[in-house]
Amino acid sequence: MKKTFVAMSLLIANSALASELPDFLDVNDINNAAFKCLGDAPTYSKVDQKYVDQLWDETLTYLRAYASALTNGEKSHCLNSDEALFDSTEGGKKICVMDRRDMKLMVKNIYQVINNADKAKQCFGAREEVDWIYNPGGELTKNSPVAQHFKRTTFDEFFETKVINKEVQKLGKLFTKNFYKMVTGDEVKMPSAFPYDISANALPNLWAAAGWFPMYAEESKRNDKNFNNIRAGYAYAEIFGHWGLLRIDEINGEKVGAEIGMTVQSVDTLYPYHNHAVSEMYYNMRVPACTNQFKSFAVREDSPLVHTIKEDDKVRRVQFDAAQHNGHTQWLAGSYQQDPLIYFHQNTIHAFDVDGSCEAKPEERAIVSVWARSNAHDKRNDYGTTLLCESAKKPGTPANKDEVIQCDLTKLKW
């Protein structure tokens, strides 16, 4: 009965999509949009197509709710926009996120997909053949016929065969064991801007079969500046984007920069200070176990708190004193209820600190987010590379919260 209800809910939601175009979008840009896929349009057997259709329905449900949340001004002081924290220093700074041009384009692209679903679907596939995205396995897979049908390497196999560091391997297996509990249950809740639930509680196939990447777990020079627990305790999945299930190169002749998906970060971890030349955003989907459990740091590259050390035609090396007397005030708390949306301009230095001391079973908990990058099509600006900062005192090692950090920022081209 429950599966039937979910299926009917998705059918009702998706059948009404084309009639719900917001009046701030130009109907001439949306209706009858033309799509150019990234790569060849995938084809499937009749048996496979049944499961692809299930995955597609949940993808449309996910995208519709996300676009609605971004343009929901009822809970903010904004017009047709949610409000986002973008800098945590000096008391914190916020913007109406839809004032950003990249956000407008991303929402427009989502509605172009929703209102031309049959044409957009030609660019959609299960991506079973991609060997570097994985199935979390466990209960998540057991609850998803789609994830069971399309076979991927599991997290268990990944950490066993592709991870060299023994501590990362051990912690990664613990992450795998508890992944289902991390992304489901009463602790996972949508921010109020969302019209309905798009978590793993409501969309089990999408969360199980999207294809997850533990992006720091394998050995790389970059990870010299990382912590083992976050290497083992972080993964993301991409639904819409260059590496995701829905791969669109152009709509109406314009490049698509949207990358939309979800992230999971274990508690008791510090995602180190880092930056990238692509704008990014997160919606927090967790009920905190205690006050100030989920804290974020963000400082823009043009902040007077950021000092240039040296630069060339491609990179600007900067430092920020995280140990200054009021350094603890530079981190701001958030949750599904409190400042759930955070937006990072290009080259913003940011980090996430998740406290596990107040969790009864910290190994079973994580911060879960709806995640997106908005201008990933601009390859001039080093698309896809996340640059970890380092200790200024000990270059090449991870930067802690109580010292001067050093970061290399990409010289943006425009």
Structure description:
InterPro entries: RmlC-like_jellyroll (IPR014710). Residues 1-18 form the signal peptide. The N and C termini lie far apart (54 Å). This protein has 414 residues and is α+β, with helices and mostly antiparallel strands. A hairpin with a 3-residue loop joins strand 12 and strand 13 (315-321). It has helices at 2-15, 27-30, 46-70, 101-114, 117-120, 138-142, 145-149, 155-161, 166-183, 204-209, 228-232; strands at residues 35-37, 83-87, 93-96, 212-213, 234-240, 248-251, 254-255, 259-266, 269-275, 280-284, 294-299, 307-311, 315-321, 332-333, 341-344, 349-354, 366-373, 387-388, 390-391, 404-410. It is globular, with a radius of gyration of 21 Å.
Architecture blueprint of SSEs:
Blueprint: H1 2-15, H2 27-30, E1 35-37, H3 46-70, E2 83-87, E3 93-96, H4 101-114, H5 117-120, H6 138-142, H7 145-149, H8 155-161, H9 166-183, H10 204-209, E4 212-213, H11 228-232, E5 234-240, E6 248-251, E7 254-255, E8 259-266, E9 269-275, E10 280-284, E11 294-299, E12 307-311, E13 315-321, E14 332-333, E15 341-344, E16 349-354, E17 366-373, E18 387-388, E19 390-391, E20 404-410
Antiparallel strand pairs: 1-6, 2-3, 4-5, 5-8, 6-7, 8-17, 9-16, 9-18, 10-15, 10-17, 11-14, 11-16, 12-13, 13-20, 19-20
Shape estimate = globular
Oligomer: single chain
Please bin the fraction of helical residues: 25-40%
Strand proportion: 15-25%
Profile the largest sheet.
Answer: 6 strands, antiparallel
Cα-atom Rg, whole angstroms? 21 Å
Low-confidence stretches: 1-9, 11-19
Distance between the termini: 54 Å
Signal peptide: 1-18
InterPro entries: RmlC-like_jellyroll (IPR014710)
Keywords: Signal
